[in-house]
Amino acid sequence: MRFISPALCLAIFSLAWATPSLAADPVRGQKIFKKCASCHTVKKDGKRKTGPNLWNIIGRDVAANEAFAKKYSKAMKAYGGVWSADRLDVFLKKPKKEIRKTKMGFAGLKKDKDRTDLLAFLATFSDASSSQANAVTPAEDPGPEYGFMFVAKGVEETFIACTPCHSERIVVQQGLKKADWEELFVWMIEEQDMEAMEEPDYTLVLNYLTEHYGIDRPNFPGKKK
What we know:
Oligomer: single chain
Number of strands: 0
CATH class of the largest domain: Mainly Alpha
CATH superfamily of the largest domain: Cytochrome c-like domain
Order of helices and strands: HHHHHHHHHH
CATH architecture of the largest domain: Orthogonal Bundle
Strand content: under 5%
Structural class: mainly alpha
Radius of gyration: 19 Å
Distance between the termini: 44 Å
Largest sheet: none
Shape: elongated
Number of helices: 10
């Protein structure tokens, strides 16, 4: 992790201006980032995961990461503008309240201190701070991106669609026919307030679940093949 440049310091610490006890702690923010690390990387040349790379996120245009361009939701693109520290603070508190149809399933960070520290950590991963001396190395990426889910076409879309409400452990324990998966989607939209999936994601998710978690569940964890 790097020392924060003066401009980024001002943006981050302004979040805690009214509450002195919220002095930003980027080292603590690194620990909080573990909640984000399964879907995001902060490495400058890091490969995108299920979410975009967060290098240079503070001060970057919304939905502007080129490697993730085709994956941003319409809602995120419509949100527009720039990711200022203040704006990120509001979004991270409750993402789906700020951007109702965001694909990001993270529930949010309710505590002001957690968000302040996380933003302080993210601020150290930018071109503005890259020339500064290193203080702490970033945490390693935590294993497979999709947990127990079988890696194949449609896994990313399925992970994004299902894990906001369910552990991937529950997803892979299912074994349904295609028609039953379709019926389950309808029930979840009508009775559980799930957002309807748009194409091509809907077809990708349906085909993925039918093929890999159908009646015979060929990729059920631990099943002998």
